[in-house]
Write a structure and sequence with these properties.
There is one protein chain. The protein is an alpha+beta fold. It contains 4 helices and 5 strands; from the N terminus they run βαβαβαββα. The strands form 2 sheets. Strands 3-5-4 form a 3-stranded antiparallel β-sheet, sandwiched between helices. A two-stranded antiparallel ribbon has the order 1-2. The chain is globular, with a radius of gyration of 14 Å.
Length: about 130
């Protein structure tokens, strides 16, 4: 088995509703609003396998709530994004536009459902001063 390195931000749920957890985690990481709930015991850091296909299938299998990407090479994302969306997940950019194989590099969220995606995208939006 490959050694797993700490992931750059993907989280899995561990007993609390995914949307509020995602909001709290992103707030704690300095990316947006959220509540001040403690994250201790509520999240598990997911290892980055440097393989988007595995990360997308981890979302499908319930081991991960979401992940984010910037570099959108079609050979890395097209097939796994199709599988995720056919399985009820969403892959969309911060603007809410759906990922396509022609999407330019930009922050993109792959999530298990629309609610998780909306929460992640909302909290990744740039803060207004």
């Amino acid at each position: 088995m490959a050694e797993r390195r700490p992931h750059r931000g993907a989280l899995v749920s561990a007993a609390v509703a995914a949307t509020s957890l995602a909001a709290s985690a992103l707030h704690a990481a300095g990316h947006g609003g959220g509540d001040d709930e403690s994250l201790v015991g509520k999240f598990t850091l997911v290892a980055d396998l440097v393989c988007s296909a595995i990360e997308y299938t981890d979302i499908l299998q319930g081991r991960q709530e979401f992940t984010t990407y910037y570099r959108l090479l079609p050979w890395d994302h097209a097939a796994p994004a199709l599988l995720l969306t056919e399985g009820g997940g969403v892959v969309e950019h911060l603007t809410g536009e759906t990922y396509t194989v022609r999407s330019a590099n930009q922050v993109t969220v792959a999530a298990r459902n629309r609610d998780v995606s909306n929460a992640v995208r909302r909290h990744l939006q740039p803060r207004s001063s």
